[in-house]
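Weekend entry, working from home. Most of the wet-lab plans are on hold until the incubator is repaired, so I used the time to fold the two sequences that have been sitting in the queue since the last round of cloning. Logging both here for the record. First:
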Amino acid sequence: MLMPSYSPPRPRQLLLPALASASRQAGASLLFALITLLALTLAAIALVRSVDTGALVLGNLGFRQAATSAADQATRQAIAWLAANPGSLSGDVPASGYYSTALDGVDMTGGQLPTSSRGLVNWDIDSCAYAAAGTFTSCTVTPSTLINIDASTSARYVITRLCLTTGDPAATGNTCAKPMSSSTTTAAARGRVDYSNPYRFTGQSGPYYRVVVRVMGTRSTSSFTETIVHF
């Protein structure tokens, strides 16, 4: 009589495929977790940099506004100098930052005219070291003496008379920008500009004076203002 053969089950062989599948799933989950963590880290860094940049921009704007506001004091001093020196306005007074011509070829701010033929203002009395060598042809215009606004803010100014040449503004050959005279009665002449000469306006009043102020404030903030006045 033959006895039936019997083979017991092999649990280990049945569990091996399941264990391998679970191991592969755990590895994929770890990979996705690392990728997600990296994305969150990059997003956090970008947010921090954005906040820092915004704070920096706001700070710079605040410094610029403070410097521009401080320019008013220097402008007042320039106007006071003009009023106190009426006999000196026909010629240049470089020591006081005054010039009796318009100085059209001078780049007051250092960033307005082409670099091939411009002159510069020697704002820091250092031979225009703020501009690269070869980017200007002259550095002979000197500003006023230093005006200390507060502990961290200072200013200088340059005054130019908007005339073609030095000397008497009414002299032959000299023309100046002037406000319209209230005595002008011809309607066609009111506000008229003689475009054959860029400095000649209708009227007999005194010439215009341009006051350019440069303010140096906190963290080397610089600001330029321009004011036109006449007497």
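Second, folded right after the first finished:
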Amino acid sequence: MAESALAFRKEMKFAYREVAQVSPLVRRVIANNPSAFTFHGTNTYIIGRGEVAVIDPGPIRDDHVDALARALKGEQVTHILVTHTHMDHSPGATMLKQAVGGRVVGAHPRPLKEGTPPVESIQPDFAPDLEIGDGSVVSGPGWTLEAIHTPGHMSNHHCFALAEERALFSGDHVMGWNTSIVSPPDGNMREYLSSLSRCMMREDEIYWPGHGPEIVAPQAYVRALQGHRRMRETEIASCLRNGVATIPEMVAVMYRHLPAPMHRAAARAVLAHLEHMVETGRAVTDGPATADSSYRLP
């Protein structure tokens, strides 16, 4: 099947527990939680000097919070911002607040429909001091961060735009080392694609993602992400034309290059695409689109 023009960048110089000054206003500390889904680990960003904000304090790890506390010694933390409430991004907020102070800033995901099984990777007890929405602004001396609602990876996902450097902290919405997981029921492909289009309309000069290295020329990269998702839906349509009707069968065809342990995540992505294709009349199924449904072309 055809490959997209999407090119990942995985080179990244770093050391765990060390603070890297990555731009005049931005410092980065990487949590030691590497995995197939987090790359080297979660990127935590410190914005400003003196009175500062912290973005994505990461998972529950004493060593990471201790490293952040050392980096912030002598400074006042005014805000601890959370792009979204997956367990590798938000639970460290409470620990960091206890260590250095600051107000936890973020949003709750939309409630799941009654009877929907809970999603294990979502922090269930997230309790921000300040609930944000699209356009919310927090600021300090020399820095301004605006929340940009970008649902798709999660319903409560927000990127944060740093006006002074025309930079976007893109969380897990856009990453340069891999594509983002869009996993129903909270993840939604229609929303994800709409959020990508919104990013395309912006004039940010650099993205600082939740995992992996910075993204330069971000509009071109987002355009490639859009093309990649269109390619996946073309592959699904091809499967349907050839009588490949179930998600496990599609995954075996579309993701044969991936090791078997990654097929479960791939199946969630295919489900998200099929939900979108059913919504837009490009695929049909009997009843709601689920992981166990059988699909066909209209």
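Plan for Monday: verify the second prediction. The CA atoms of residues 71 and 241 lie 56 Å apart.
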